[in-house]
Amino acid sequence: MNALGIALTAMAIMTLTLTSADSAVKPFVETREQRNAKMAWWREAKFGMFIHWGVYSVPAGKWEGKDVPSVGEWIMLHGKIPCADYQKLPEQFNPTKFDAAEWVKLAKQAGMKYIVITSKHHDGFAMFHSKTDPFNIYDATPFKRDPLKELAAACAKEGIKLGFYYSQAQDWNHPGGAAMAGGHWDKAQDGDMDKYLQDVAVPQVKELLTNYGPIAVMWWDTPADMNQQRADMLLPLLKLQPGIIMNNRLGFYDGDFGTPEQEIPKADSDNDWETCMTMNDTWGYKSTDNNWKSTQNLERNLIDIVSKGGNYLLNVGPDSLGQIPSPSVDRLKAIGNWLKTNGEAIYGTTRAPFTTMMFDGRATMKDNKLYLFVFNWPSDEIRLPDLRTSLQSARYLGINEQVDYTELPGTEMRASLVIAPPSHPDPIATVIELTYADKPVR
Ligand code: JFZ
Description:
Elements: H1 3-19, H2 32-45, E1 47-51, E2 62-63, E3 66-67, H3 75-78, H4 83-86, H5 100-109, E4 114-120, H6 147-158, E5 161-166, H7 193-208, E6 217-220, H8 228-234, E7 245-246, E8 274-277, H9 295-307, E9 311-316, H10 326-342, E10 350-351, E11 360-366, E12 369-376, E13 382-384, E14 391-396, E15 405-408, E16 416-419, E17 430-436
Parallel strand pairs: 1-4, 1-9, 4-5, 5-6, 6-7, 8-9
Antiparallel strand pairs: 2-3, 10-11, 11-12, 12-17, 13-16, 14-17, 15-16
Helix pairs in contact: 5-6, 5-10, 9-10
The structure holds 4-nitrophenyl 6-deoxy-alpha-L-galactopyranoside.
C-alpha cells in the first residue's frame, strides 16, 4: 500500500470512531432547554464555510519538485519533511492578497451563515499572533498581520458567526505532539504529550477564546492519544465563551454535533451533525488539484443533508497569497444565487416527515409547510404519500408558474397528492412549497 492508501485506511478506521454515537461522555451539564437554546442558531444556519489555510499553501502539494500524494495540509507527514526544513516555509509566506472582508462577503453571498477556519492544523503553525510560540503567521512570516483578528472583525461586521478549528493533539512541529498514520519521523518531535498540551495547546486555545471576540464553534480534530485527563486540560477553557458549541473530535467526551467527513450519512437521526466536505480532493490548497465537483452536485448535497437534518460545512483552501481559488468562488456564487429564491426551503427547516421518497428528490419542513425538492421530473407526475392534514396551497419558489396539482380522495384529511411537471424545471432542484392546515406528519 502506498502512503495515500495507508492514510485513507487510517481515515476509514477513524470514521468509525468519530461518526458513530459511541460511549463517549457528555462534556456539559445542561437541560434540554439550555441545549436547544445553545444550538438554535446552528440548527437554523444549515450552511457554513470551512477554511483550511496554513503555511502548507506555500508548497501547495509539491516537495523538491515532486508531487506528494496526500491532501495539501498533510504534506509534512507524507513527505516526511524534517521539522527544520518545514520551519523555513514561513519565510516564503506573504499572503498580501488576503482580504478578510472579501472572504466574509463571499461566504455571505454563498448563503453561508458561519465560518470555521483552521487556527492551527497538524503542522503546528498558528495562523494567528500567538504569544505562546513564535511559529505563527505574525512572528515567523514577512506578512506581520493576524488574519484571524481581521476575520473576526469582518465577521462581526457582517453578522457571520466565527468558529476555530484547532488540532489539539496532533502536532508535528512541537515536541510531544501526537502524530498519526506512520508516527514521528524526526527526533525534534520527541517529547511528552502532556507537556506539549500544557505548554502549547492549552495556552493557544486560551488565546483563541480570549482575544478574538465571540467565538461560536470550537472544532477540534484528530484526537490521537487523547484521554479524559488530557481532554480535561482543554475542556474548561470553553467557559471563556458562553454558548460556544464544540464538535465531537476533542477525545473522550462527546460533542454537541457529529462530524461525518466527505460523506452524507444514510440514516436520519435526531442528533445534530455536520457533514464537512471539500469542493475538489484536498482541504488545504494544492496547485495540481482541479477535480472540482459541479455546482449541481454541491447544491444537491446541501439539499440532501438538510433533508436528513444536518448542516453542510463546505471547504475552501486559499492559496499562499490569500486567494480563494476561482473555481470555488464561482461555485459559491452560483449556490448563493440559487439560495436567494429557494433559501426558505433550507434555513430553519427540519428533516422531512417521510424518509422514503416517492420521486427523485428530497423534502424538508417548517411549521405547517412542506418543501419538496424535485431533482429530476418523470415525464408524467410525482406523488406524495398521505399526510394527516389537509393541503391549503401550493407554489413554486424559484419558478414563475402555477403548480398543477390534484389531490386524490383518501380518507378524511388523508388525501395524497399528484403534481404534474412544470414547463421549465430547475436543473438543480425545482422547489415546491406546500402549505397545510397543520404540521405535515404522516
Ligand atoms: C482531518 C484532518 O486530518 C484533515 O486534514 C482535515 O482537516 C479534516 C477536516 O479533518 O481528517 C480527518 C479526520 C477524521 C476523519 C477523516 C479525516 N474521519 O473521521 O474519518
